[in-house]
Design goal:
Helix content is 42%, strand content 20%. Strands 1, 2, 3, 4, 5 and 6 form a 6-stranded mixed beta sheet that branches. Helix 1 packs across helix 6. The protein contains 6 helices and 6 strands, in the order E-H-E-H-E-E-H-E-H-E-H-H. It has 157 residues and is of the alpha/beta class.
Length: 157
């Protein structure tokens, strides 16, 4: 099965999970690049507001065509309990190209189920697997075993 891990990461937490998945799944990886500056405190506040309002943004062109993959593993940070704006935009732009999907989220707190439901609606697909990781898990090596379990669940389907 040809797989692509695609993700957006404002602070590096979601990137950390994506890189581990790329290694475990031995697949391609692509970072979603937002053209809007989301750095610093103001960027943090703007990002949460945009996510709550379900706004779209302008992304840099992607390199990998999602239609050429059997599975797209999509990763997002939680912003105010919602899918990040760049990931929402990517899913909106590429929904018709997805054959199968799996989702992962990183967050400081709670709220994964609502986000996964949102991602299911955005993709038009039921995910093969989902993984939610909290920031405290990412600060230790404990997240790697959860990533391995998630990858194994994907590969069994």
């Amino acid at each position: 099965m040809k797989m692509l891990v695609v993700f957006y990461s404002r602070t590096g937490n979601t990137r950390k999970v994506a890189e581990e998945l790329e290694k475990v799944l031995e697949c391609d990886m692509e970072e979603i690049i937002d053209t809007k500056n989301r750095s610093g405190s103001l960027g943090y506040l703007r990002s949460g507001r945009d996510a709550m309002n379900r706004k779209l943004t302008v992304l840099q062109d992607v390199i990998n065509d999602p239609s050429s993959y059997d599975l797209i593993v999509i990763g997002t940070p939680l912003w105010a309990g919602h899918v990040s704006t760049p990931v929402r935009t990517y899913m909106h732009q590429n929904q018709a190209s997805f054959k199968n999907v799996a989702f992962f989220c990183t967050a400081g707190g709670m709220g994964f189920e609502g986000t996964f439901k949102d991602m299911k609606e955005l993709s038009g697909k039921t995910p093969l697997a989902t993984l939610g990781l909290r920031e405290k898990e990412l600060k230790s090596a404990s997240y790697k075993s959860k990533v391995a379990e998630f990858a194994q669940e994907i590969q069994m389907k």
